[in-house]
Amino acid sequence: MRKLRISTFLGLVGSISGLDILYSENDGSPYCANFSTFTTELDHFSFDDRKIDIRVITDDRFYKPGGPVLFYTGNEGAIELFCENTGFQREAGEELNAKLIFMEHRYYGKSIPDNNNTFLTAEQALADYADYLDQLKRNTDVGPVIALGGSYGGMLAAYIRLKYPNIIAGSIAASAPVKFFPGQFDCRGFYRVTTRTFANTPAGEVCADNIRDSWAVIKQIGSHMVGKKLLSDTFKTCKVITDTAQLTDFLQEVWGSLAMMDYPYPTNFMGDVPGWPVNKACEHLDKKYGQMDLLDAVHQAAQVYYNYTGGMDCLDLGGGGDAPDLGYDAWYYQTCTEFVMPFCADGKQDMFLPSEFNFDDYKQNCINTFGTYPRKDWPEVYFNVEAMKQIGNIIFSNGHLDPWSSGGVLNQSEAGDRNPIFIIDQGAHHLDLRSSNPLDPDQVKEVRKQYLSIIRQWIADANQSDTSDRQL
Amino acid sequence: MRKLRISTFLGLVGSISGLDILYSENDGSPYCANFSTFTTELDHFSFDDRKIDIRVITDDRFYKPGGPVLFYTGNEGAIELFCENTGFQREAGEELNAKLIFMEHRYYGKSIPDNNNTFLTAEQALADYADYLDQLKRNTDVGPVIALGGSYGGMLAAYIRLKYPNIIAGSIAASAPVKFFPGQFDCRGFYRVTTRTFANTPAGEVCADNIRDSWAVIKQIGSHMVGKKLLSDTFKTCKVITDTAQLTDFLQEVWGSLAMMDYPYPTNFMGDVPGWPVNKACEHLDKKYGQMDLLDAVHQAAQVYYNYTGGMDCLDLGGGGDAPDLGYDAWYYQTCTEFVMPFCADGKQDMFLPSEFNFDDYKQNCINTFGTYPRKDWPEVYFNVEAMKQIGNIIFSNGHLDPWSSGGVLNQSEAGDRNPIFIIDQGAHHLDLRSSNPLDPDQVKEVRKQYLSIIRQWIADANQSDTSDRQL
């Protein structure tokens, strides 16, 4: 399972699986507890009467009749976490007098109808959202609906505009790796961007060079029993390392995660993480070291992510790279069906252990684990970026620091002339959707203003179109 | 089942069910025998390894490398029948040096994986077509793909452009009742247009008046045993009529079918049908009659459809309105799942027996027959006409004589400025897709020329867009 594992970050994120690592914002929580349940078809594509209950958070504080809807297309996790970490939605809602809705993705959080992922697909989740919104539009006086989401939620925001343009007037697809599929991008992308983020700190390129050098050191020292004990002591692991892959897998995830969460201000997930954590990590790696000193420095740097305030007794590396308890995780299942996300590294233009992406191996793992046959070309057929060009009204935003940006829509010719694109130079994973913060770079403040202006235009266009329809 | 039955025309069309009544053209057959089999996912929306074999007809006589594809989105019947009756596709193919493809709809013809309609939906059929075309595009040098189809096939042509604009550059949706759903049109539409077609023949409005008057006569005479025998003798039924609904259901289907097939030249289906058959039928109904003479006249008029050359020994009305053998027909199943098509009549602005559309009854019938729960709002959510406006490049054509036009897109404001519309004054059900015929009205000749010109533009635009993509 090793090749799959990095795409899920499961080792670190615990119950929150998938692309996203979430950090609670202080402002959100009180507004993310107003739950209701929406009952819809368990299988939207057959016609029996089985149902599923989906959780929905609504927030009507700012809503005025006829106002727009800002709809968060929930992704791989409990919906309150996305609600708590998407402060931009509340800030925009106040400006627009919008109804705020956050809808949970089926098979995550508390919207789980069975333990077998039987009807877990993006198509079903999109149909959940569309059904909810269709009924909302039929039964209330809401205005146009704007979808938004980050990461996989951003993919879903783009997809729902693509598949239900009658329901969604426009979308913000924040840090959405809509091209992160075989044949559509270079599988080395994720690690290359991570490396760039580490090489561009004040510490200089030596930071990335040290990490690149560390793999051989770990491998060499870990090649014998005494060395494994030494590694375990250095990294304060709870159990003695039996295979160096336990450590290298973990560290690769840590570096990727640090780049994803390289926010300008402190965030809180596994303990406290400081602002600009990659800079902080690289402060420990800012010069050349001998072997043992390098390992110590790597340990210090990695702890910026998982033990910054020093409260952790020991590091639990879990069952290692092939931990069997990962088997039935829902996001892992999704990567074994329609979302084949390829990762690879060459160790030259990136600072990671060289690895190849082999679809046959990947597929065999999926068959063994879930009995599923992943379809590597399906997103290109069904969730196609060229098609998004034609439909328009999708904002593609990406953070230059964020490894997932490697699978995003990064230039205007890819996006087409109807989809605005934004690259946030000092942006990590969907920074733009977070609450305003005094430490935000000026660029993200400006970008959020532009989002509001674009959304206002979409709403005006949609209202105009509705009026013309009524006049027929 | 009576209320459902009229929507399927099953009583008349035998093994060809659904919206379409097909008449073989003379030119087509030799080119409609080049079958191959495409193997694809039985369920495109789960990820197991079950497969389905779909029949495909290809015709490469006119194709030159890099040329476009004209792709017929097969509808509810054996694919060779659609191939044989879509001569326009061959004529256009010759002009465009196109590859011609006709793909069978799953669960029809010989593409039937099981007897339970388990994976029979339009979404699955569209995914069959998309998968085939995606592989064709990956593995060969074909140019842009234009989809076309008539009736339900026309709906599918519109839908595939809507859902897979990355694969389909444009579509001709001929006589496609894309709005023939609850809440989207007046359920009296089908019978009103039929009535208009009958009232506008040289015989004058008396033709429709006679038909309207006939129902009371049939009911009155059929109210006793002797009268039922008399009706049976008059209409030369094989068995004595036990319920006048057997006869009135049949006649209502005949009138609707005659209007659908009101072509300017003879066609051949159940025996020979003359050119302009509604005119011919109305010649028998061109003056006021007494009761018995009216029944005779109605009998003569109806025979224009099913016994024009007089070879039929007796009229088989089958098991009547509730014939149980209709239960597992595939199209009937589709009307009991995602395509709820409402019919009703007021007997005033139309010449039919007054009837209401009651969704609760309709639904209960579906539950009883198939165990399915039809979703009346689903097409508006998933196959939405407003969404087609946004995507563009869909030709909506309708025949003014054709009852199905009542559920079509008939004006430019409904179609939007990116979708051309055509109304063919003397056109019956997708006349425009048939082979050229010396008796064709000038308008349909002109319309076909315009289709070619529009398709050329779509192809040029798509090639242009491909070239820009490659230049990135």
Overall tally of domains of chain A: 2
Instruction: Please name the fourth-level CATH homologous superfamily of the largest domain in chain A.
Output: Alpha/Beta hydrolase fold, catalytic domain
Order of helices and strands of chain A: HHEEEHHEHEHEHHHHEEHHHHHHEHEH
What does the radius of gyration of chain A come to? Answer: 22 Å
Instruction: List how many beta strands of chain A DSSP finds.
Output: 10
Q: Please count the helical segments of chain A.
A: 18
Could you name the key traits of this structure?
homodimer; 472 residues; alpha/beta; Four Helix Bundle (Hemerythrin (Met), subunit A); Rossmann fold; 8-stranded mixed β-sheet; two-stranded antiparallel sheet; 18 helices; 10 strands; disordered N terminus
